[in-house]
Amino acid sequence: MFxxxxxxxxxxxxxxxxxxxxxxxxxxxxxxxxxPDQANGSLIRNQSGQVIGSRLIGxxxxxxxxxxxxxxxxxxxxxxxASGGTNLGPTSSKLILGSxxxxxxxxxxESYRSENxxxxxxxxxxxxxxxxxSGLDPDISPANAMLQARRVSAARHLMLEQVIALVQxxxxxxxLGFIGEPRVNVLLLNLALxxxxx
Length: 198
Description:
Distance between the termini: 82 Å
Strand order of the largest sheet: 3-5-4
Shape: extended
Strand content: 5-15%
Helix content: 40-55%
Radius of gyration: 23 Å
Largest sheet: 3 strands, antiparallel
């Protein structure tokens, strides 16, 4: 029995060493060398060096003078420990109409139209009324940002053209030219807004 146990024990120790120590160390080293910003969380710091966010995780903005991100199903909004979607399908009446404990697409669309000074029948970008799969999405579509520009310019007493130009400067194209959709990072856009002198 001892003869049979020794090879199994050796194999377990070797595999534990390779997969538990060597492999993670190699992956961490490669990540730090090739993608140091992403490997360290893509953190954004203010002038005094204090971390104020990450380019990869959305934040809740509710004041009218800021662009707002897409709705989040993660906890009370953008909670990393509660990351996840709603798990409601496209035919779910709860997803569309909402319930007493869940805001549906219909209510989100009405709220979006109201806060962005749109008409009752104006079309709303899909990312303005749907939650992302992770609940942590930091980006919105350019169409969503453009529809919010009027509210932001009015709240900040800025020219609409100035805010639209800022949005256009922050549009990121598809990754590698064909993956995903054009997008605007909400945190980076709001930080750029704060730098504008009135």
